Predict the structure.
Amino acid sequence: MIVRAIADGKVVHANQVAGYSNYGRYIVIEHVWDGSPYYSLYGHLSEIAAGVGQKVSRGERIARMGYTGEGLNQARAHLHLELNLMFNRNFESWHDRNFRDPNHNGIYNGINLAGLDIARFFLEREKRPDLSVRQFLAEEEIFYKVTVPDSPHFDLRKFYPWMVKNVSANAQSWEVVLRAQECPCRSKRAANRSHNRR
């Protein structure tokens, strides 16, 4: 079965070795909407038909669905589709410090991508064709909040400035609001706390 791009964009990653990922062979396309980058990921492919750097149009053939590995046999063949936000451009050095296994997929490793509920997003867009990712995430139910130290490597605020609320120049941390699937939907500067920064 042919796999087609969900929207116009540019191919930024193609993993040709099934054993290098839980996605098997997969391809990632970057889409820039309202000034922010979003990443569609197509996994469990038998063949990748588009190359890194290639611009693709919505509906263009980019791959063929298949099964790639012992964990996914022919009877279970399917396309794994995600629409993601990216956490950090410095992911590779963090991964190398914290994991023994090599990172074969750079910043397009699934650990560095936060997926939204793509099925629900497209169903909502059927009713509201002008619905943006930003609007969709703003309407999502809050599941939990985490506080992270301020850092020049905190890229969510750079990639998705619409997510940032209550900016305070002297705050030492960020409160990140996440929904059930762990996709960030809002962040704000947290109040100063008496703790040591590392």
In short: The chain is about 15% helix and 35% strand. Helices lie at 91-98, 118-127, 133-138, 156-159. Residues 192-198 have pLDDT under 50 and may be disordered.
